[in-house]
Specification:
- Its main location: membrane.
- The protein has one domain (5-257).
- Helix content is 75%, strand content 3%.
- The chain is built from seven helices and two strands.
- The chain has a two-stranded antiparallel sheet.
- Helix 5 runs parallel beside helix 7 (211-257) and helix 6 (165-205) packs antiparallel against helix 7 (211-257).
């Protein structure tokens, strides 16, 4: 049995791009998914894709193959990083709220990002993942990496990596992440700021009151009460976040494929 060298090279390049995408994209990159499953899923997707590549490679020099492998690695990493950066807005909003309410002293391990996160950030992250899975957003993520082979072929290089367009686009994604994160946290932060001012006035007018024993439970009660009220608005912001995330992935493919 002979192995076609051209098909093997095509499979290698496709596998590198899909695997690097899987280790950075939301949901799939989480540590709660075993690495064996990630590699196996990447192999299956690579086998399905390698037969429908529009411009397969046939033979290249060793140095050119190394550059192509590096290019495929960067494409997969950047494409998954764009989605992950915007998805990180959910955890940013939770971190801002926990800093305001006083929950920042209690932290939990977040397997999705592999770091420690606060209670509210972890809760918002779980809600965002559930909404993404319920709306078949993970299918769109997979569709994004598969569509990348139509925009950036295996044998072509990406000029956007050298002229600064790619780094400029990543900085714009970081800016959008901060903006969406602040929008998610703004209602509760504003409410808690007013509560702090009111409790400060009470503390000045009634100095006999035990501030450290009364004020933290009051803030926590108001926090959860307001959270229930504004929760529908959080799902609306998730809709905007997902639209921005998928739109940014599409724009990134156009930038790299131009």
């Amino acid at each position: 049995m002979t192995i076609d060298t051209s098909s093997l090279l095509n499979f290698l390049l496709v596998f590198v791009r899909i695997t690097s995408f899987m280790v950075t994209v939301p949901v799939f990159s989480g540590r709660q998914i075993p690495n064996t499953y990630k590699i196996g899923f990447s192999v299956v997707l690579s086998i399905l894709c390698v037969g429908i590549i529009n411009e397969p490679i046939h033979s290249f020099a060793l140095g050119t193959m190394v550059l192509l492998i590096l290019k495929e690695f960067i494409i997969g990493i950047v494409l998954g990083m764009v989605a992950n950066i915007l998805f990180y807005a959910v955890q940013l909003a939770g971190a801002l709220l926990d800093l305001q309410i006083g929950f920042s002293m209690a932290s939990l391990f977040d397997p999705t990002f592999g770091t420690t996160s606060q209670i509210t950030g972890r809760f918002k992250n779980i809600l965002a993942i559930l909404v993404l899975l319920a709306t078949n957003g993970h299918h769109l993520l997979i569709q994004g990496i598969l569509a990348s082979f139509d925009w950036v072929s295996l044998q072509s290089f990406v000029p956007a990596m050298m002229d600064g367009r790619l780094s400029t686009f990543l900085l714009a994604c970081v800016q959008q992440m901060f903006m969406i994160g602040f929008l998610m946290a703004a209602p509760l932060i504003g409410t808690l700021f007013i509560v702090d001012v009111a409790l400060g006035i009470v503390a000045r007018t009634v100095p006999q009151m035990n501030v450290f024993a009364i004020f933290p439970p009051v803030k926590i009660l108001i926090h959860f009460g307001m959270y229930v009220i504004i929760l529908p608005g959080f799902f609306y912001l998730l809709k905007i976040l997902f639209e921005t995330m998928f739109g940014s992935m599409n724009t990134l493919l156009k930038v790299m494929g131009a």
